[in-house]
Amino acid sequence: xxxxxxxFGRQGTQxxxxxxxxxxxxxxxxxxxxxxxxxxxxxxxxxxxxxxxxAAAAGIGDYEPCxxxxxxxxxxxxxxxxxxxxxxxxxxxxxxxxxxxxxxPILWVRGDPAWLAKNxxxxxxxxxxxxxxxxxxxxxxxxxxxxxHTIVAGLARGIDTAxxxxxxxxxxxxxxxxxxxxxxxxENLVLAAQIAEKGVLVSEQPxxxxxxxxxxxxxxxxVSGLSLAVVVIEAAHRSGTLITAKNALDQGREVMAVPGxxxxxxxxxxxxxxxxxxxxxxxxxxxxxxxxxxxxxxxxPEAPPAPAPRPEPVEAGELEARILSRLGPSPSDxxxxxxxxxxxxxxxxxxxxxxELQGRLLRVPGxxxxxx
Length: 372
Description:
By secondary structure, the protein is of the alpha/beta class. Helix content is about 45%, strand content about 15%. The protein has helices spanning about 15-25, 30-40, 45-55, 70-80, 95-100, 130-145, 160-165, 190-200, 215-225, 240-250, 270-275, 285-300, 315-325, 335-340, 345-360; strands at about 85, 105-110, 120-125, 150-155, 170-175, 200-205, 230-235, 255-260, 280, 330-335, 360-365, 370. α6 crosses α12 (about 285-300). Residues about 1-15 have low confidence and may be disordered.
């Protein structure tokens, strides 16, 4: 089992939406910490009750979970926006997204949530795109839609907008960086309304949240996490699109890219992805063929891993120091850190949680850790 990813706990019937929201909106409780708390305490109510004690053990004496009124106000804002809350323990929650590290504990949706699980494929790319890029995006999205795939994108200008528009007749998912009632860019207001009618808008942020720069990388992990594959059309070097592609690789998703002219900076990211191993695709037929091949390969069973030797126990303070010694300003893969420690995942995860609550450690998208 992947030592960096704990299974979703079974939340008890006492865990209503208000309790779940209070836990995920509590200070220093991100998605990965939320899932660990659920796994360790058996439910959101028990985890919420345990938070002050956990924080005190980490040296934080004045810790208070998210107030009930704050969570109640978010639920009311969601109702006012015509949005629906889907928790990670709901059958409506997309199974593919549930598998990723740091999966969103809740999703706010406007539209039909069934689109989240209808063979989704992400079609993404540059905001500043060429006319050929827009034509490719429209053809790719339309062809994949006709083949039975829901098109996922981020409602951004350029490639995302073209893909959404082309997929309206067959179904599309717009993953938003802000609240599902805050349309960005504003020029896509009509498109967002059409998606809410013919597809679904989705976000993990509270309704009414204005998108900020820090929200876009976390939004991108949902775009890739929902999808069977990520198709990149026109992306510059060091663009947000490449962050999504990196997330896809971390999540075990297929990354495909449409090549471009070497002299066109808008194609630099796609050409780099292909050079580094992404699948070159020319049209929707190439994407469908690759997905069919992947599905066939997935049917081949793997041999079970050999059991690991049982390590010696380590004091909590020593373990925290060992974890911090392996981190720096540049993020490190959490699985690699735990593997290097040579300790049970439960012990390492408890120490990581303590360091996170102390503010000495940060979690970043893609299942990585950095110094706080």
